[in-house]
Design a protein that fits this description.
single chain, about 550 residues, alpha/beta, Rossmann fold, four-stranded mixed β-sheet, three-stranded antiparallel β-sheet, 24 helices, RNA-binding
RNA sequence: GGCUCUAUGGUCAAGCGGUCAAGACUCCGCCCUCUCACGGCGGCAACCCGGGUUCGAAUCCCGGUAGAGUCACCA
Protein backbone atom coordinates (compact mmCIF):
# COMPACT_ATOMS: atom_id res chain seq x y z
CA UNK A 1 0.00 0.00 0.00
CA UNK A 2 1.26 3.40 -0.97
CA UNK A 3 0.28 5.46 2.06
CA UNK A 4 1.36 8.69 0.48
CA UNK A 5 -0.96 8.13 -2.42
CA UNK A 6 -3.76 7.15 -0.05
CA UNK A 7 -3.29 10.33 1.93
CA UNK A 8 -3.62 12.37 -1.26
CA UNK A 9 -6.75 10.49 -2.19
CA UNK A 10 -8.31 11.15 1.21
CA UNK A 11 -7.21 14.75 1.60
CA UNK A 12 -6.87 16.24 -1.88
CA UNK A 13 -7.40 19.77 -0.62
CA UNK A 14 -4.91 19.78 2.21
CA UNK A 15 -1.80 21.51 0.96
CA UNK A 16 -0.30 22.76 4.21
CA UNK A 17 2.30 20.65 5.97
CA UNK A 18 2.67 19.91 9.67
CA UNK A 19 5.85 21.97 9.60
CA UNK A 20 3.84 24.95 8.46
CA UNK A 21 1.73 24.82 11.59
CA UNK A 22 4.65 24.05 13.86
CA UNK A 23 6.24 27.23 12.63
CA UNK A 24 3.06 29.21 12.86
CA UNK A 25 2.62 28.26 16.52
CA UNK A 26 6.11 28.31 18.00
CA UNK A 27 6.92 27.43 21.57
CA UNK A 28 5.71 30.10 23.90
CA UNK A 29 8.19 32.56 25.25
CA UNK A 30 7.42 32.32 28.93
CA UNK A 31 9.48 32.41 32.12
CA UNK A 32 10.79 29.19 33.54
CA UNK A 33 8.07 27.19 35.26
CA UNK A 34 5.20 29.18 33.79
CA UNK A 35 2.21 26.97 33.15
CA UNK A 36 -0.10 27.17 30.20
CA UNK A 37 -3.59 25.89 30.88
CA UNK A 38 -6.84 25.95 29.07
CA UNK A 39 -10.51 25.49 29.59
CA UNK A 40 -12.29 23.64 26.84
CA UNK A 41 -16.00 23.73 27.38
CA UNK A 42 -18.44 22.46 24.84
CA UNK A 43 -20.86 25.24 24.06
CA UNK A 44 -24.01 23.83 25.59
CA UNK A 45 -24.32 26.99 27.62
CA UNK A 46 -24.55 25.00 30.78
CA UNK A 47 -21.86 25.25 33.38
CA UNK A 48 -22.06 23.71 36.77
CA UNK A 49 -20.05 23.78 39.91
CA UNK A 50 -17.81 21.02 38.62
CA UNK A 51 -16.76 23.12 35.64
CA UNK A 52 -16.00 26.03 37.92
CA UNK A 53 -14.00 23.73 40.12
CA UNK A 54 -11.84 22.69 37.20
CA UNK A 55 -11.61 26.19 35.79
CA UNK A 56 -10.40 27.36 39.13
CA UNK A 57 -7.53 24.90 39.07
CA UNK A 58 -6.58 26.00 35.55
CA UNK A 59 -6.72 29.62 36.52
CA UNK A 60 -4.67 29.25 39.69
CA UNK A 61 -2.05 27.09 38.04
CA UNK A 62 -1.53 29.54 35.21
CA UNK A 63 -1.71 32.79 37.08
CA UNK A 64 0.27 31.64 40.06
CA UNK A 65 3.15 30.72 37.80
CA UNK A 66 3.06 33.72 35.53
CA UNK A 67 1.69 31.62 32.73
CA UNK A 68 -1.26 31.80 30.40
CA UNK A 69 -4.82 30.63 30.74
CA UNK A 70 -6.89 30.46 27.60
CA UNK A 71 -10.39 29.56 26.51
CA UNK A 72 -10.95 27.13 23.68
CA UNK A 73 -14.41 26.32 22.46
CA UNK A 74 -14.78 22.60 21.90
CA UNK A 75 -17.69 22.50 19.55
CA UNK A 76 -16.88 19.39 17.58
CA UNK A 77 -20.28 17.97 18.34
CA UNK A 78 -22.68 19.94 16.21
CA UNK A 79 -25.67 18.43 17.95
CA UNK A 80 -25.02 20.02 21.29
CA UNK A 81 -24.39 23.55 20.28
CA UNK A 82 -26.50 26.22 21.91
CA UNK A 83 -26.88 29.77 20.69
CA UNK A 84 -25.04 32.39 22.72
CA UNK A 85 -23.30 29.78 24.82
CA UNK A 86 -19.86 31.31 24.55
CA UNK A 87 -21.12 34.52 26.02
CA UNK A 88 -22.78 32.68 28.87
CA UNK A 89 -19.61 30.75 29.61
CA UNK A 90 -17.41 33.79 29.65
CA UNK A 91 -19.83 35.84 31.72
CA UNK A 92 -20.51 33.15 34.27
CA UNK A 93 -16.84 32.49 34.81
CA UNK A 94 -15.97 36.15 34.96
CA UNK A 95 -18.61 36.62 37.61
CA UNK A 96 -16.78 34.09 39.74
CA UNK A 97 -13.45 35.73 39.14
CA UNK A 98 -12.15 33.45 36.43
CA UNK A 99 -10.59 35.51 33.66
CA UNK A 100 -8.82 34.37 30.55
CA UNK A 101 -5.65 35.83 29.09
CA UNK A 102 -6.20 34.46 25.66
CA UNK A 103 -8.59 32.56 23.45
CA UNK A 104 -12.17 32.92 22.39
CA UNK A 105 -13.88 36.10 23.53
CA UNK A 106 -17.15 37.78 22.74
CA UNK A 107 -15.33 40.02 20.28
CA UNK A 108 -13.53 37.19 18.53
CA UNK A 109 -10.19 35.58 19.15
CA UNK A 110 -7.45 37.10 21.20
CA UNK A 111 -3.97 35.61 21.05
CA UNK A 112 -1.52 34.14 18.58
CA UNK A 113 -2.44 30.48 18.89
CA UNK A 114 -5.90 30.57 17.36
CA UNK A 115 -8.28 29.85 15.96
CA UNK A 116 -9.69 29.03 19.38
CA UNK A 117 -12.87 27.46 18.15
CA UNK A 118 -12.43 23.86 17.14
CA UNK A 119 -15.04 23.87 14.43
CA UNK A 120 -12.96 26.51 12.64
CA UNK A 121 -9.84 24.38 12.70
CA UNK A 122 -10.86 21.67 10.25
CA UNK A 123 -7.89 22.05 7.89
CA UNK A 124 -5.45 21.88 10.77
CA UNK A 125 -6.77 18.59 12.07
CA UNK A 126 -7.01 17.23 8.58
CA UNK A 127 -3.42 18.16 7.90
CA UNK A 128 -2.24 16.13 10.86
CA UNK A 129 -4.61 13.29 10.11
CA UNK A 130 -3.18 13.26 6.62
CA UNK A 131 0.29 12.98 8.06
CA UNK A 132 -0.80 9.95 10.08
CA UNK A 133 -2.28 8.34 7.01
CA UNK A 134 0.90 9.02 5.08
CA UNK A 135 2.86 7.24 7.74
CA UNK A 136 0.46 4.33 7.82
CA UNK A 137 -0.69 5.19 11.33
CA UNK A 138 -4.26 5.97 10.40
CA UNK A 139 -6.68 4.75 7.77
CA UNK A 140 -10.11 5.38 6.34
CA UNK A 141 -12.90 3.23 7.70
CA UNK A 142 -16.14 2.64 5.83
CA UNK A 143 -17.98 0.65 8.45
CA UNK A 144 -21.60 1.66 8.76
CA UNK A 145 -23.49 1.96 12.00
CA UNK A 146 -25.20 -1.34 11.31
CA UNK A 147 -21.95 -3.12 10.63
CA UNK A 148 -20.47 -1.81 13.82
CA UNK A 149 -23.50 -2.96 15.75
CA UNK A 150 -23.12 -6.38 14.21
CA UNK A 151 -19.48 -6.55 15.21
CA UNK A 152 -20.46 -5.65 18.70
CA UNK A 153 -22.95 -8.47 18.82
CA UNK A 154 -20.39 -10.98 17.64
CA UNK A 155 -17.97 -9.72 20.24
CA UNK A 156 -20.58 -10.05 22.92
CA UNK A 157 -21.30 -13.58 21.83
CA UNK A 158 -17.71 -14.67 22.30
CA UNK A 159 -17.12 -12.34 25.25
CA UNK A 160 -14.48 -10.36 23.47
CA UNK A 161 -13.85 -6.72 24.31
CA UNK A 162 -16.12 -4.49 22.28
CA UNK A 163 -14.83 -2.00 19.76
CA UNK A 164 -12.97 -1.66 16.51
CA UNK A 165 -9.50 -3.07 16.97
CA UNK A 166 -7.16 -5.75 15.66
CA UNK A 167 -8.91 -8.29 13.51
CA UNK A 168 -12.28 -6.57 13.98
CA UNK A 169 -11.01 -3.50 12.21
CA UNK A 170 -12.02 -4.67 8.78
CA UNK A 171 -11.22 -1.51 6.91
CA UNK A 172 -7.59 -1.85 7.88
CA UNK A 173 -7.07 -4.37 5.12
CA UNK A 174 -8.70 -2.50 2.27
CA UNK A 175 -6.50 -2.04 -0.76
CA UNK A 176 -5.97 1.30 -2.39
CA UNK A 177 -8.17 0.27 -5.27
CA UNK A 178 -11.00 -0.76 -2.97
CA UNK A 179 -10.80 2.50 -1.10
CA UNK A 180 -10.72 4.50 -4.29
CA UNK A 181 -13.74 2.63 -5.60
CA UNK A 182 -15.72 3.27 -2.44
CA UNK A 183 -14.89 6.93 -2.47
CA UNK A 184 -15.82 7.23 -6.12
CA UNK A 185 -19.09 5.51 -5.27
CA UNK A 186 -19.73 8.29 -2.81
CA UNK A 187 -19.26 6.24 0.34
CA UNK A 188 -18.51 8.25 3.43
CA UNK A 189 -15.65 7.33 5.72
CA UNK A 190 -14.14 8.19 9.04
CA UNK A 191 -10.44 8.20 9.76
CA UNK A 192 -9.31 5.82 12.44
CA UNK A 193 -6.08 5.52 14.32
CA UNK A 194 -4.32 2.28 13.46
CA UNK A 195 -3.44 1.17 16.95
CA UNK A 196 -0.37 -0.91 17.59
CA UNK A 197 -1.78 -2.08 20.86
CA UNK A 198 -2.82 -5.60 21.60
CA UNK A 199 -4.85 -6.52 24.62
CA UNK A 200 -5.50 -10.09 23.51
CA UNK A 201 -2.09 -11.16 24.72
CA UNK A 202 -1.62 -13.12 27.94
CA UNK A 203 -1.91 -10.74 30.81
CA UNK A 204 1.78 -10.61 31.65
CA UNK A 205 2.65 -9.70 28.09
CA UNK A 206 0.31 -6.78 27.74
CA UNK A 207 2.21 -3.55 27.47
CA UNK A 208 1.34 -1.09 30.18
CA UNK A 209 1.74 2.64 30.06
CA UNK A 210 2.82 4.75 32.97
CA UNK A 211 1.88 8.39 33.17
CA UNK A 212 2.74 10.89 35.88
CA UNK A 213 -0.39 12.69 36.91
CA UNK A 214 0.14 15.89 38.89
CA UNK A 215 -2.73 15.09 41.20
CA UNK A 216 -2.73 11.33 41.32
CA UNK A 217 0.88 10.34 41.01
CA UNK A 218 1.84 7.47 38.74
CA UNK A 219 -0.94 6.13 36.61
CA UNK A 220 -0.43 2.60 35.39
CA UNK A 221 -2.80 1.17 32.82
CA UNK A 222 -2.92 -1.17 29.84
CA UNK A 223 -2.04 0.42 26.53
CA UNK A 224 -4.70 1.37 24.02
CA UNK A 225 -5.71 -1.14 21.37
CA UNK A 226 -8.72 0.61 19.89
CA UNK A 227 -8.74 2.04 16.40
CA UNK A 228 -10.39 5.15 17.74
CA UNK A 229 -12.06 7.49 15.30
CA UNK A 230 -9.97 10.61 14.95
CA UNK A 231 -11.86 12.33 12.17
CA UNK A 232 -15.59 12.01 11.76
CA UNK A 233 -17.29 11.77 8.38
CA UNK A 234 -17.62 15.52 8.45
CA UNK A 235 -13.87 15.97 8.65
CA UNK A 236 -14.26 17.32 12.17
CA UNK A 237 -12.15 15.56 14.77
CA UNK A 238 -13.33 13.70 17.82
CA UNK A 239 -12.35 15.02 21.22
CA UNK A 240 -9.35 12.72 21.36
CA UNK A 241 -7.69 14.00 18.26
CA UNK A 242 -8.66 17.60 18.83
CA UNK A 243 -7.17 17.46 22.30
CA UNK A 244 -3.87 16.10 21.06
CA UNK A 245 -3.51 18.46 18.12
CA UNK A 246 -4.74 21.56 19.90
CA UNK A 247 -2.89 21.15 23.13
CA UNK A 248 0.28 20.52 21.20
CA UNK A 249 -0.13 23.43 18.84
CA UNK A 250 -1.39 25.77 21.51
CA UNK A 251 1.53 24.71 23.67
CA UNK A 252 -0.53 23.75 26.67
CA UNK A 253 1.69 22.56 29.49
CA UNK A 254 -0.95 21.32 31.92
CA UNK A 255 -4.21 19.67 31.00
CA UNK A 256 -6.71 19.87 33.83
CA UNK A 257 -9.76 17.71 33.30
CA UNK A 258 -12.15 15.52 35.21
CA UNK A 259 -11.39 11.94 36.17
CA UNK A 260 -13.96 10.74 33.66
CA UNK A 261 -11.15 11.13 31.10
CA UNK A 262 -8.91 8.65 32.80
CA UNK A 263 -10.14 5.67 30.80
CA UNK A 264 -9.30 7.35 27.51
CA UNK A 265 -5.85 8.41 28.57
CA UNK A 266 -4.19 5.45 26.80
CA UNK A 267 -5.70 6.65 23.54
CA UNK A 268 -4.21 10.07 24.05
CA UNK A 269 -0.86 8.64 24.96
CA UNK A 270 -0.76 6.58 21.79
CA UNK A 271 -1.86 9.56 19.75
CA UNK A 272 0.93 11.68 21.16
CA UNK A 273 3.41 8.88 20.47
CA UNK A 274 2.25 8.50 16.89
CA UNK A 275 2.44 12.23 16.34
CA UNK A 276 5.91 12.30 17.83
CA UNK A 277 4.95 14.90 20.39
CA UNK A 278 5.58 15.35 24.06
CA UNK A 279 2.32 15.03 25.98
CA UNK A 280 1.33 17.72 28.49
CA UNK A 281 1.24 17.13 32.22
CA UNK A 282 -2.14 15.75 33.09
CA UNK A 283 -4.08 16.81 36.14
CA UNK A 284 -7.11 14.61 36.54
CA UNK A 285 -9.36 16.20 39.11
CA UNK A 286 -11.76 14.38 41.35
CA UNK A 287 -15.35 14.76 40.43
CA UNK A 288 -17.79 16.64 42.55
CA UNK A 289 -20.30 14.17 43.82
CA UNK A 290 -23.85 14.34 44.95
CA UNK A 291 -25.99 12.14 47.10
CA UNK A 292 -28.80 10.68 45.03
CA UNK A 293 -32.24 9.62 46.17
CA UNK A 294 -31.05 6.19 47.21
CA UNK A 295 -28.30 7.68 49.31
CA UNK A 296 -25.47 6.78 46.96
CA UNK A 297 -22.76 9.07 45.84
CA UNK A 298 -22.68 9.88 42.20
CA UNK A 299 -21.08 12.27 39.81
CA UNK A 300 -22.70 15.62 39.27
CA UNK A 301 -24.77 15.53 36.16
CA UNK A 302 -25.86 18.50 34.17
CA UNK A 303 -29.04 16.80 33.16
CA UNK A 304 -30.00 15.50 36.59
CA UNK A 305 -28.74 18.26 38.82
CA UNK A 306 -29.89 21.66 37.62
CA UNK A 307 -29.47 22.99 41.15
CA UNK A 308 -25.74 22.55 40.78
CA UNK A 309 -25.76 24.92 37.87
CA UNK A 310 -23.66 27.99 38.45
CA UNK A 311 -26.68 30.07 37.65
CA UNK A 312 -28.45 28.56 40.60
CA UNK A 313 -25.97 30.14 42.96
CA UNK A 314 -26.09 33.41 41.14
CA UNK A 315 -29.86 33.44 41.33
CA UNK A 316 -29.87 32.64 45.01
CA UNK A 317 -27.46 35.50 45.38
CA UNK A 318 -24.34 33.84 46.65
CA UNK A 319 -21.44 36.21 46.50
CA UNK A 320 -18.78 35.09 44.04
CA UNK A 321 -16.09 35.49 46.67
CA UNK A 322 -17.97 33.07 48.90
CA UNK A 323 -18.22 30.47 46.18
CA UNK A 324 -14.53 30.86 45.41
CA UNK A 325 -13.63 30.52 49.03
CA UNK A 326 -15.78 27.43 49.38
CA UNK A 327 -14.37 25.85 46.27
CA UNK A 328 -10.87 26.38 47.52
CA UNK A 329 -11.68 24.67 50.80
CA UNK A 330 -12.68 21.53 48.97
CA UNK A 331 -10.00 21.95 46.33
CA UNK A 332 -6.94 22.14 48.52
CA UNK A 333 -6.91 20.37 51.85
CA UNK A 334 -4.61 22.89 53.48
CA UNK A 335 -6.62 25.93 52.53
CA UNK A 336 -8.80 26.06 55.63
CA UNK A 337 -5.78 25.89 57.84
CA UNK A 338 -4.16 28.66 55.87
CA UNK A 339 -7.29 30.74 56.09
CA UNK A 340 -7.43 30.44 59.86
CA UNK A 341 -3.82 31.56 60.06
CA UNK A 342 -4.39 34.38 57.56
CA UNK A 343 -7.95 35.56 58.06
CA UNK A 344 -7.51 38.79 56.18
CA UNK A 345 -5.18 37.72 53.41
CA UNK A 346 -6.29 37.93 49.83
CA UNK A 347 -7.30 34.58 48.42
CA UNK A 348 -4.72 35.04 45.67
CA UNK A 349 -1.94 34.80 48.21
CA UNK A 350 -2.73 31.20 49.00
CA UNK A 351 -0.29 28.92 47.31
CA UNK A 352 -2.36 26.41 45.46
CA UNK A 353 -0.78 23.06 44.63
CA UNK A 354 -1.98 20.06 42.71
CA UNK A 355 -0.37 17.78 45.26
CA UNK A 356 -2.76 18.96 47.93
CA UNK A 357 -5.77 18.17 45.83
CA UNK A 358 -7.94 15.33 46.90
CA UNK A 359 -8.37 12.57 44.38
CA UNK A 360 -11.57 11.21 45.75
CA UNK A 361 -14.81 12.87 44.89
CA UNK A 362 -16.08 15.46 47.33
CA UNK A 363 -19.70 15.72 48.20
CA UNK A 364 -21.14 19.15 47.74
CA UNK A 365 -21.97 20.52 51.18
CA UNK A 366 -24.44 23.37 51.37
CA UNK A 367 -23.93 23.80 55.12
CA UNK A 368 -20.31 24.43 54.57
CA UNK A 369 -20.93 26.84 51.71
CA UNK A 370 -23.26 28.82 53.95
CA UNK A 371 -20.79 28.89 56.76
CA UNK A 372 -17.99 30.02 54.50
CA UNK A 373 -20.28 32.59 52.98
CA UNK A 374 -21.05 34.15 56.36
CA UNK A 375 -17.39 34.70 57.01
CA UNK A 376 -16.76 36.09 53.58
CA UNK A 377 -19.67 38.52 53.65
CA UNK A 378 -18.57 39.79 57.03
CA UNK A 379 -15.44 41.15 55.42
CA UNK A 380 -17.28 42.96 52.68
CA UNK A 381 -18.21 46.55 53.41
CA UNK A 382 -21.83 47.59 53.56
CA UNK A 383 -21.29 49.78 50.56
CA UNK A 384 -19.93 46.91 48.48
CA UNK A 385 -22.67 44.64 49.73
CA UNK A 386 -25.20 47.18 48.58
CA UNK A 387 -23.66 47.24 45.12
CA UNK A 388 -23.67 43.49 45.03
CA UNK A 389 -27.32 43.30 46.04
CA UNK A 390 -28.26 45.92 43.49
CA UNK A 391 -26.51 44.11 40.67
CA UNK A 392 -28.12 40.86 41.74
CA UNK A 393 -31.55 42.46 41.90
CA UNK A 394 -31.22 44.00 38.48
CA UNK A 395 -30.33 40.69 36.95
CA UNK A 396 -32.63 38.32 38.79
CA UNK A 397 -35.30 40.29 40.64
CA UNK A 398 -36.19 43.10 38.30
CA UNK A 399 -39.89 42.72 39.04
CA UNK A 400 -39.67 42.03 42.73
CA UNK A 401 -41.29 44.87 44.68
CA UNK A 402 -39.86 43.73 47.98
CA UNK A 403 -36.38 43.90 46.57
CA UNK A 404 -37.04 47.26 45.01
CA UNK A 405 -38.16 48.83 48.25
CA UNK A 406 -35.21 47.33 50.01
CA UNK A 407 -32.78 48.95 47.62
CA UNK A 408 -34.60 52.26 47.32
CA UNK A 409 -32.69 54.05 50.08
CA UNK A 410 -29.02 53.26 49.91
CA UNK A 411 -27.98 54.93 53.15
CA UNK A 412 -30.79 53.22 55.05
CA UNK A 413 -29.91 49.76 53.75
CA UNK A 414 -26.23 50.24 54.42
CA UNK A 415 -26.99 51.02 58.04
CA UNK A 416 -29.11 47.89 58.24
CA UNK A 417 -26.42 45.75 56.67
CA UNK A 418 -23.92 46.96 59.20
CA UNK A 419 -25.91 46.11 62.30
CA UNK A 420 -23.66 44.45 64.81
CA UNK A 421 -20.92 43.91 62.30
CA UNK A 422 -18.45 46.27 63.84
CA UNK A 423 -18.65 44.92 67.34
CA UNK A 424 -15.18 44.99 68.77
CA UNK A 425 -15.19 41.35 69.77
CA UNK A 426 -17.76 39.11 68.16
CA UNK A 427 -19.34 40.62 65.11
CA UNK A 428 -22.66 39.32 63.89
CA UNK A 429 -22.66 37.08 60.85
CA UNK A 430 -26.20 37.39 59.67
CA UNK A 431 -25.73 37.60 55.93
CA UNK A 432 -25.37 34.48 53.81
CA UNK A 433 -26.76 35.14 50.35
CA UNK A 434 -28.92 37.78 48.72
CA UNK A 435 -32.21 35.94 48.77
CA UNK A 436 -31.76 35.03 52.39
CA UNK A 437 -30.94 38.63 53.21
CA UNK A 438 -34.06 39.94 51.54
CA UNK A 439 -36.19 37.66 53.66
CA UNK A 440 -34.19 38.24 56.79
CA UNK A 441 -34.35 42.02 56.61
CA UNK A 442 -37.91 42.45 55.44
CA UNK A 443 -39.12 43.99 58.71
CA UNK A 444 -37.11 47.13 58.14
CA UNK A 445 -39.48 48.20 55.42
CA UNK A 446 -43.10 49.08 56.01
CA UNK A 447 -44.05 47.56 52.68
CA UNK A 448 -42.84 44.13 53.74
CA UNK A 449 -43.17 44.37 57.50
CA UNK A 450 -45.61 41.96 59.05
CA UNK A 451 -46.23 40.31 62.38
CA UNK A 452 -44.84 36.83 61.95
CA UNK A 453 -44.45 35.65 65.52
CA UNK A 454 -46.69 35.49 68.59
CA UNK A 455 -46.23 37.57 71.67
CA UNK A 456 -44.52 35.54 74.42
CA UNK A 457 -46.90 33.26 76.30
CA UNK A 458 -45.88 34.51 79.73
CA UNK A 459 -46.95 38.05 78.93
CA UNK A 460 -50.09 37.04 77.06
CA UNK A 461 -51.16 34.92 80.02
CA UNK A 462 -50.69 37.83 82.36
CA UNK A 463 -52.62 40.09 80.01
CA UNK A 464 -49.76 42.58 79.97
CA UNK A 465 -49.08 43.15 76.30
CA UNK A 466 -50.73 46.54 75.90
CA UNK A 467 -49.68 47.58 79.37
CA UNK A 468 -46.05 47.04 78.51
CA UNK A 469 -46.38 48.79 75.19
CA UNK A 470 -48.11 51.77 76.74
CA UNK A 471 -45.61 52.17 79.50
CA UNK A 472 -42.84 51.82 76.97
CA UNK A 473 -44.36 54.49 74.76
CA UNK A 474 -44.79 56.83 77.67
CA UNK A 475 -41.17 56.77 78.64
CA UNK A 476 -39.74 56.35 75.16
CA UNK A 477 -37.12 58.92 74.26
CA UNK A 478 -35.52 58.35 70.91
CA UNK A 479 -32.37 60.14 71.99
CA UNK A 480 -31.67 57.77 74.89
CA UNK A 481 -28.43 55.88 74.63
CA UNK A 482 -28.45 52.14 74.77
CA UNK A 483 -27.94 51.93 78.50
CA UNK A 484 -30.51 54.53 79.44
CA UNK A 485 -32.96 52.86 77.13
CA UNK A 486 -32.45 49.47 78.69
CA UNK A 487 -32.72 50.82 82.20
CA UNK A 488 -36.21 52.00 81.33
CA UNK A 489 -37.09 48.49 80.21
CA UNK A 490 -35.78 47.21 83.50
CA UNK A 491 -37.96 49.68 85.35
CA UNK A 492 -41.09 48.52 83.51
CA UNK A 493 -40.08 44.94 84.06
CA UNK A 494 -39.74 45.40 87.76
CA UNK A 495 -42.86 47.51 88.10
CA UNK A 496 -45.08 44.91 86.48
CA UNK A 497 -43.76 42.02 88.53
CA UNK A 498 -41.31 40.46 86.11
CA UNK A 499 -37.78 39.47 87.03
CA UNK A 500 -35.12 41.95 85.99
CA UNK A 501 -32.57 39.14 85.97
CA UNK A 502 -33.58 36.08 83.98
CA UNK A 503 -31.68 33.94 86.46
CA UNK A 504 -33.95 34.98 89.28
CA UNK A 505 -36.93 33.89 87.26
CA UNK A 506 -35.33 30.56 86.49
CA UNK A 507 -34.63 29.97 90.13
CA UNK A 508 -38.04 31.10 91.41
CA UNK A 509 -40.52 31.03 88.55
CA UNK A 510 -43.42 31.16 91.01
CA UNK A 511 -42.42 34.62 92.22
CA UNK A 512 -42.58 36.33 88.82
CA UNK A 513 -44.81 36.59 85.78
CA UNK A 514 -41.77 36.25 83.57
CA UNK A 515 -38.47 38.02 83.09
CA UNK A 516 -36.94 40.95 81.29
CA UNK A 517 -36.43 38.84 78.18
CA UNK A 518 -40.16 38.33 77.87
CA UNK A 519 -40.85 42.01 78.32
CA UNK A 520 -38.27 42.84 75.66
CA UNK A 521 -39.76 40.32 73.36
CA UNK A 522 -43.06 42.15 73.47
CA UNK A 523 -41.31 45.25 72.16
CA UNK A 524 -39.43 43.16 69.66
CA UNK A 525 -42.54 41.53 68.22
CA UNK A 526 -44.33 44.86 68.01
CA UNK A 527 -41.38 46.46 66.26
CA UNK A 528 -39.96 43.63 64.19
CA UNK A 529 -42.83 41.22 64.01
CA UNK A 530 -40.47 38.52 65.22
CA UNK A 531 -39.26 37.09 68.47
CA UNK A 532 -35.71 37.12 67.23
CA UNK A 533 -33.64 39.97 65.95
CA UNK A 534 -30.46 41.91 66.66
CA UNK A 535 -30.32 44.51 69.36
CA UNK A 536 -33.61 46.39 69.74
CA UNK A 537 -32.08 49.75 70.52
CA UNK A 538 -29.84 49.64 67.50
CA UNK A 539 -32.72 48.74 65.23
CA UNK A 540 -34.83 51.54 66.66
CA UNK A 541 -32.12 54.02 65.83
CA UNK A 542 -32.20 52.87 62.25
CA UNK A 543 -35.98 52.64 61.94
CA UNK A 544 -36.36 56.18 63.22
CA UNK A 545 -38.66 57.53 65.91
CA UNK A 546 -41.68 57.95 63.71
CA UNK A 547 -41.72 54.38 62.50
CA UNK A 548 -41.01 53.05 65.98
CA UNK A 549 -43.94 54.90 67.51
CA UNK A 550 -46.29 53.99 64.71
CA UNK A 551 -45.57 50.30 65.04
CA UNK A 552 -45.87 50.31 68.81
CA UNK A 553 -49.13 52.22 68.61
CA UNK A 554 -50.80 49.25 66.92
CA UNK A 555 -50.38 47.26 70.11
CA UNK A 556 -51.23 49.98 72.55
C1' G B 1 -18.58 -7.99 32.12
C1' G B 2 -13.37 -5.62 30.87
C1' C B 3 -10.42 -1.60 32.36
C1' U B 4 -9.64 2.45 35.81
C1' C B 5 -10.18 5.40 40.16
C1' U B 6 -11.49 5.77 45.30
C1' A B 7 -12.10 3.95 50.53
C1' U B 8 -10.55 7.68 58.16
C1' G B 9 -16.90 10.34 62.25
C1' G B 10 -23.30 12.48 58.97
C1' U B 11 -20.07 15.89 55.49
C1' C B 12 -15.00 17.86 54.10
C1' A B 13 -10.46 16.23 55.80
C1' A B 14 -5.11 15.74 58.54
C1' G B 15 -2.15 11.41 58.87
C1' C B 16 2.52 9.00 55.10
C1' G B 17 5.39 2.19 60.82
C1' G B 18 4.83 4.09 67.37
C1' U B 19 -0.60 9.99 67.91
C1' C B 20 -5.14 9.22 73.95
C1' A B 21 -6.35 9.05 65.40
C1' A B 22 -5.80 16.59 64.32
C1' G B 23 -9.04 20.29 62.60
C1' A B 24 -13.53 22.48 60.02
C1' C B 25 -18.99 22.09 59.03
C1' U B 26 -23.53 19.89 60.98
C1' C B 27 -26.01 18.17 65.50
C1' C B 28 -26.51 18.21 71.08
C1' G B 29 -25.43 20.40 76.00
C1' C B 30 -23.50 24.49 79.09
C1' C B 31 -21.72 29.61 79.57
C1' C B 32 -22.36 34.73 77.85
C1' U B 33 -27.08 37.26 77.21
C1' C B 34 -33.16 41.53 76.27
C1' U B 35 -34.29 37.20 71.95
C1' C B 36 -31.43 35.50 67.93
C1' A B 37 -26.81 35.46 65.90
C1' C B 38 -21.68 35.83 67.25
C1' G B 39 -18.18 34.04 70.73
C1' G B 40 -16.29 30.58 74.63
C1' C B 41 -16.31 25.66 76.84
C1' G B 42 -17.73 20.65 76.45
C1' G B 43 -20.04 16.35 74.02
C1' C B 44 -21.85 12.55 70.30
C1' A B 45 -19.31 10.37 66.26
C1' A B 46 -14.36 7.31 62.21
C1' C B 47 -9.51 4.14 60.22
C1' C B 48 -14.58 -1.14 54.72
C1' C B 49 -13.45 -6.58 55.73
C1' G B 50 -9.90 -10.79 55.96
C1' G B 51 -5.09 -12.45 55.83
C1' G B 52 0.01 -11.47 56.10
C1' U B 53 5.11 -8.42 57.01
C1' U B 54 6.70 -6.21 61.77
C1' C B 55 8.25 -5.81 68.64
C1' G B 56 4.46 -2.46 66.69
C1' A B 57 -0.05 -1.10 60.90
C1' A B 58 -5.07 3.84 59.54
C1' U B 59 -0.20 3.87 57.31
C1' C B 60 3.51 -1.54 53.78
C1' C B 61 2.00 -6.35 50.87
C1' C B 62 -1.84 -9.85 49.16
C1' G B 63 -6.97 -11.14 48.67
C1' G B 64 -11.91 -9.71 49.01
C1' U B 65 -15.99 -6.00 49.50
C1' A B 66 -18.33 -1.47 48.46
C1' G B 67 -18.92 3.13 45.79
C1' A B 68 -17.71 5.83 41.45
C1' G B 69 -16.05 6.45 36.35
C1' U B 70 -15.62 4.56 31.45
C1' C B 71 -16.13 1.28 27.37
C1' A B 72 -19.72 6.55 20.76
C1' C B 73 -18.55 9.33 14.21
C1' C B 74 -20.51 13.12 22.93
C1' A B 75 -17.30 15.87 25.24
Amino acid sequence: MDHKKLAELLFPNIDKTPEYYEEMYPKRDLPEGAKVTRLGPSPTGFIHLGNLYGAFVDERLAHQSGGTFFLRIEDTDDKREVEGAVEIIINSLRFFGINFDEGATMEGDKGAYGDYTQSHRGPIYQCFAKKLVEEGKAYPCFLTEEEIAEIREQQQAIKANPGIYGKWAKSRDLTYEEIEAKINAGEKFVVRLKSDGNLDLPEDQIRRIKVQDAIRGTLDMPENDQDTVILKQTGIPTYHFAHVVDDHLMRTTHVVRGAEWLPSLPIHVELFEKMGWEPPIYCHTAQLMKLDEEGNKRKLSKRLDPELSLDYYRKEGYHPAAVREYLLTILNSNFEEWRIANPDADIEEFEFTTEKMSNSGALFDLNKLNDVSKEVLLKISASDLYDFLKAWAEEFRADDEAVKTMLADRAYLEKILDIGRHAERNPRKDHIFADQMVKNLSYFFDETFEIEDEMPQEVVNAGDVSTIINKYLETYDHSDDNETWFNKIRAITDELGYAVKPKDYKKHPEEYKGHVGHVSTVIRVALMGRQQSPDIWEIQQILGEERVRARLQKFA
